[in-house]
Design a protein that fits this description.
By secondary structure, this protein is mostly helical. The chain is built from seven helices and two strands. It has helices at residues 2-23, 26-42, 53-70, 104-121, 124-135, 140-147, 151-171; strands spanning 78-81, 87-90. The chain has a two-stranded antiparallel ribbon with strand order 1-2. Helix 6 crosses helix 7. The longest helix is centred in the N-terminal third of the chain and has 22 residues, at 2-23. The chain is globular.
Length: 178
């Protein structure tokens, strides 16, 4: 069991963060991350030593996220990173931002909200590729294995995704994607 503990310790945060960015809902992401690790422990998915473990694990996580989306649950939740790099969640009943004039921290929160909204508007393939590249720091080759598509297709997805994000962010007043 020490090997399983090591896997969980090393990958729990990246798997959760991937699911969180993919689903944009903390509770759903926690459920998916738990489901993924339970499935790995129970042997529901079979790992082939030919593949890189992290690539295989993100493919399992991606499939779990897609299954969660296909279940038809409607959800709305906003999350952001604090100045200290911690994940936090904000819920707005009327789906609007607070009316107070923001200080520096709130401005960063709003930028994160706009980025999340822009990401959610991308087609699924583009969103997946951008999340894996920009937030999980995967190489193109790894992304092609996770998404089960060609390297050329990954490059196209990322290029188009970045262009669409820039357009979305420009319309919201955020010119730079950081």
């Amino acid at each position: 069991m020490p090997a399983l503990e090591g896997i969980f310790t090393r990958y729990k945060k990246p798997v959760f963060n991937f699911a969180l960015r993919f689903l944009a809902n903390r509770a759903e992401a926690e459920d998916v991350a738990s489901d993924v690790f339970l499935a790995v422990v129970s042997g529901r998915y079979h790992y082939s030593p030919d593949a890189k473990f992290s690539t295989w694990l993100f493919a399992v996580t991606r499939n779990a996220c897609i299954s969660r989306i296909r279940s038809g649950k409607k959800m709305f939740s906003l999350w952001f990173k604090t100045e200290h790099g911690e994940d936090q969640q904000m819920d707005f009943a009327d789906h609007s931002l607070p009316s107070k004039r923001p200080d520096h921290a709130l401005l960063k929160e709003e930028q994160s909200v706009f980025l999340e909204k822009a990401l959610s508007k991308l087609p699924l393939g583009q969103r997946e590729a951008i999340i894996l590249k920009e937030f999980q720091n995967m190489r193109y080759e790894e992304i092609s294995k996770v998404l089960n598509c060609s390297l050329a297709n990954v490059k196209i997805l990322i290029f188009r995704g970045r262009e669409n994000l820039r357009r979305e962010l420009k319309t919201s007043g955020l010119e730079e994607l950081r």
